[in-house]
Amino acid sequence: HIIIPLVHMIESKKEKTKEKIVMKTSVIGYPRIGRDRELKFMVERYFRNEVSKETLQETARELRRVHWEAQASAGVDYIPSGDFSFYDQVLDTAISLGIIPQRFKALNLNALDTTFAMARGYQKQGFDVKALPMKKWFNTNYHYIVPEFEDDTEVSLNTEDFLAAFLEAKELSHITKPTLVGPYTFLSLAHYAGNKKLDDFLEATVDVYIEKLRLLAQAGAEWIAFEEPALVLDLNQSQIERFERIYKRLLAQKAGTKVLLQTYFGDIRDVYEKAGALPFDGLGLDFVEGSQTQQLIEQKGFPKGKICFAGVINGKNIWKNDYKKTLDVLEALPANTVISTSCSLQHVPYSLKSETELDAKILDHFAFAEEKLAELNALKGISALGQPLQSPELQKNQVCFNEARCVENKAVRDAVDALTEESFVRRPAFFEREQIQKHALALPFLPTTTIGSFPQTAEVKKERARFKKGELSSDEYRKRYRERIQDCVKTQEEMGLDVLVHGEFERNDMVEFFGERLAGFLFTKKAWVQSYGTRCVKPPIVWGDIDRPHPMTVDDIVYAQSLTKKPMKGMLTGPVTILNWSFPREDVDLKTSAWQIALAIRDEVLDLEAAGIKIIQIDEAALREKLPLRKQEWQSHYLDWAIPAFRLVHSGVKAKTQIHTHMCYSEFSDIIREIDAMDADVITFEASRSNLELLDVLQRSGFKTAVGPGVYDIHSPRIPSTEEIENVIEAILAKMDGDKVWVNPDCGLKTRNTAETTPSLTNMVSAANKVREKY
Q: Which of 183, 201, 394, 751 has the fewest CB atoms within 10 Å of its CB?
């Protein structure tokens, strides 16, 4: 009675194991810049009128072909189309829906040039139009262009690029999965400039999405993905009802085509059951950042009749996937689950094949976009085996996770352990320091400065490349960039700036430069990632414990100070930004790495102060970036270590030393009190593209820190007039105490050229002087 049923159960389990369904694989998006940043360079040549629109389009077609073939060769079953963009996918969506503000329509440009004008501004042929705002894409370092609805906006199908991409792939024998920024996310991220709000445009927007769905279905699309990352945010009842309203209408028109709800950057706990009840054919869920995704499935089950697109390959970090842990996740999911990336692979570099200078044993720990395709294929093969744990592929993978990767730095670990509450407190308190600094620095009303960097010209980059190749000696390289520092200081004095910078000509990137001088980091050769438009960054990799072996900036800052009697800012990058703009370790928590970096930067701050530098700027441009998307997780998961990390950096300086910081292109209004608690003396914000909306928040919160709201946009090539900047300063003074206001651009100037920078700064100083005369 016991043994025979038990035998039958064991045999049945064996048979079930033998009949395992082979899981398919999917990619949400692929890096569009190319292996060697071909898209970046071609678009920039187009901006300079060096190539035609046709040449630019041909480059784009070739990149798409290569990327589709790479995924097909790796056995990816659901290859995306529609993930390519010349600048930004959210902006492309706005163009396709006809959501183009009148000031850009008046330019009478073609669709591509209208896209670039909306992203960069336009200052030609008598037109002078500012760019649309730019913000961080959820919790990444990618920036999207904010769509703008006006009251007279008529939503209509304006372009069919989404269809053209699908047909282009089809001609190359690839039946792709068209992917679109979903209507809920698009409408949620947009700005409404008039009296009308989101719901006034909802029905018309859904109508266009229905038309897109119809056209793709007619063209032969078998699956269509709607990307809805906004569903991982905290949702109220009204937002949940809006999501249901959108998709009840949209899915009623799917006409036989299968529709995938693709989410990422977190879990969809607020709408999991609602999404499961809607007639989606698949749900794309994030098992990497979705802290409750597995719990939701365990407690509520996975909706019957739908396919789970399981995001188990990390699309944001570069460490190799732990196959054993991933297989454990997949084992609990339906048999027909699709193995997917957790988000688009545009957030990781292109391929490890370009990294010829790192040891093979080190490279074996990493997986860039191309390697993640191979991981998808390997997991597909392993999961199909009757006994997956005996797979040679799995056993090879586990070697990376069973062996020690690096040696701990005991001194660094001990220093972190020795920190006390007093380590994070600066004395005396802010208002006492404020008076001491006013007397010590004797700066004028509305002091003028820049954020730090000056244009990184082609010649600057060429000399840096020659130095790295060994074609320039260290002494010769230093001689050349110090000549540029001399010119930069002279130029600033001629302009009349009050607080100067040295220009940062010796620095490649604000994070990479410091990482190269800190122990514990690794560096790549071509691991570029798109930040916005044509701007690409090459994040360092946090490999081990972090320490500062030697001073990093002191000699050059002291040299720059010797050239002028005006205050020279020491320019540093803060610990949170260094960590957030690097690929972090996964074997220790973020707090540990952040505090290790903070101790290293603290040593640099104290050395600068000892060398006579009176103003030190510690940039935290990326403070908001890794803030959890759900507010209930802000303190315990991030702010309780990120804000102290910054305070640790400057807590040891004297009262008369003025500490500045800088932040840009993020939503800061909901963490403004935490920013004030960083206890800096001055903070400069990006504010020019957001119409100084942040100032209202500062005013309401009683913000104590002195502020430099950016008075013009450096991410646009347009040159602001003196009158324009004067009006901006007047608008700032209408909302803030003038004694707490600084005048500066909204960000560093490295991406601009001298022909744009010099007149812009000259106009800025002139505007500040004119306003001073009035007060």
A: 751
CA distance 648 to 680: 11
Decide: 740 and 688 in contact? Cβ < 8 Å. Answer: no
Q: How many CB atoms lie within 10 A of CB 104?
A: 22
Nearest Cα to Cα of residue 732 among 683, 682, 773, 698: 698
Q: 347-359, pLDDT tens digit by residue?
A: 999 999 999 999 9
CB count in 10 Å sphere of residue 301: 11
pTM of the model: 0.90
- Residue 744 DSSP symbol: B
The amino acid present at 33, given as its one-letter code, is I
Q: Are 519 and 534 in contact (CB under 8 A)?
A: no
Phi, psi of 148 (to 5 degrees): -130, 120
Answer whether 202's CB lies under 8 Å from 187's CB.
yes
Residue 543 has pLDDT above 60, yes or no: yes
Beta carbons of 453 and 750 less than 8 angstroms apart: yes
Using the predicted structure, report yes or no on whether residue 665 has a pLDDT greater than 50. Answer: yes
**Beta 535-537 vs 529-532: how paired, if at all?**
antiparallel
Radius of gyration of the CA atoms of the chain, in A: 27
Q: How confident is the model at residue 404 (pLDDT cuts 50, 70, 90)?
A: confident
Omega of the bond prior to 428 within 30 degrees of 0, cis? yes
* 527 — pLDDT class (breaks 50, 70, 90): very high
Q: Are strands 338-341 and 24-26 parallel, antiparallel or unpaired?
A: parallel
Give me the mean pLDDT over the 605-627 stretch: 94
| pLDDT score, position 8 | 43
Mean per-residue pLDDT of the chain:
94
Cα-based distances in Å from 12 to 7, 8, 488: 8, 6, 78
Of residues 388, 62, 18, 338, the one with CA closest to residue 177: 338
**Distance from C-alpha of 480 to C-alpha of 457, rounded to nearest angstrom:** 13
Q: Residues with catalytic annotation?
A: 715
Task: Give 12-64 pLDDT, tens digit per residue.
Answer: 444 344 456 789 999 999 999 999 999 999 999 999 999 999 999 999 999 99
* CA 325, 330, 333, 339 torsion-angle sign: positive
β-bridge mates for residue 319, sequence order: 366
- 71-99: average pLDDT: 98
Number of CB atoms found within 10 A of residue 363's CB: 18
Tokens representing 615 are 């103003």
Phi first, then psi, for residue 708 (nearest 5°) are: -120, 85
HEC assignment per residue over 1-43: CCHHHHHHHHHHHHHHHHCCCCCEEECCCCCCCCCCCHHHHHH
